[in-house]
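re: that chain from earlier
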Amino acid sequence: MTVPGTVKAIALYLGLGALYFLAGKFGLKLAFAHPSATAVWPPTGIALAAFLTYGRRVWPAIFGGAFFVNLTTAGTVATTLGIATGNTLEGLVGAALVERWAGGPRAFRRAPTVLSFALLAAVLATVISPSLGVGSLALGGFVPWREFGGVWLTWWLGDMAGALVVAPVLLMWIADPRIRWHREQTIEAAILLILLLLASETVFGGPFGVGLPNYPLGFVFLPLLLWTAFRLGTREAAAMLLLLAGMAIDGTLHQTGPFVRDTPNESLLLLQVFLAVSSVTTLAFGALVDERRAAEARLLQLSASDPLTGLANYRQLMTALQGEIRRSDRTERGFAIVFLDLDKLKQINDRHGHLVGSRALCRVAEAIRKSSRAVDTSARFGGDEFAVVLPEADEAAAWRVADRIRDRLALDLEEPRVTVSVGLAVYPRDGTTVEELVGRADHILYEMKARNG
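^ sequence. v structure.
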């Protein structure tokens, strides 16, 4: 490893360890059942996200953070080693299970993998840390055996909520930190944030202390979370849920909200169950929305593109030509259309087979794609014919494009060698309708094809 690489690795380890330590200290401030067992434990999500993002190599950072946060809390070095081992193994096993059966860091792109993530990483893997941690404390005499079950449940629910609330936010925002909202989405995001703050103020209280007297109104947040996932995306909905978790914890600790019970620990446990269910519901719904949008995009692409070459298809070509005619009529700037025909495709198919013939069509399409501008529309007209619509181009520019395409094909040494015949038309000189332009370009093309034999 180079010196810069070593420095980056050290910085990564120190940063992860410090983040784990600080998050752990925050969580242990809410440890009411036992000094080492809290219903709020964000470090589980941090460890899981770290292992899924950076791999197993960062385990020393997680182990170090877990060791020092517990060493400075309660117990001995021996019990602290047991707790830190459990915290580290929990993240390693959870990440391995997610990589194997839930899509790894991409777990939140599909609803089935969201559910797999919840089961494997948040429900199953999280039994490791409380089992080793509470077991170590009990063996060391820091937890009476009669209290083992209650402390274990608190520890487990805290880890589960950390995996479901914190890990998704980190994984999705690390993978894609950029915000690409257009103006309407920015306004909508602001409105949703304001509604979330108002709902939180009403249900859990807040800076203005307007909370209602512990009415069961937790359900009011679900429409806001689902609407965020539907309109903005799963990543944004996960961030909203994390913000809600912070406000809900604060309100519940101040004895406001639907989850307040006789003890703070019992209140937080009920809240964590609510947050866990809300997280799974929101993430699964967001993944379903993303899947549907991806399917619609694929269908739209298939409806507008040729499945063999990837160029625009006949329908898209006609749409582009009609659009260019309307644009030219407004701006009084013409355009050109170039037609190309693959020479002797039948002979290629007969001699080499249809797979080679299909490959020849793809080679022509690639030459067209590389010879055209971004504003041009390249399409497969049908069979062995192609077309390129060139906005604001005259005849000379159209011939230059055609020559570039033929030059690229001449430099292509793959066998069998391919050539094309060319025809073109210019709007409005050669016609004022799509039919006239296509007919004129096709006529010139076949004249050239006849000359070439």
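DSSP finds 16 helices and four strands in the chain.
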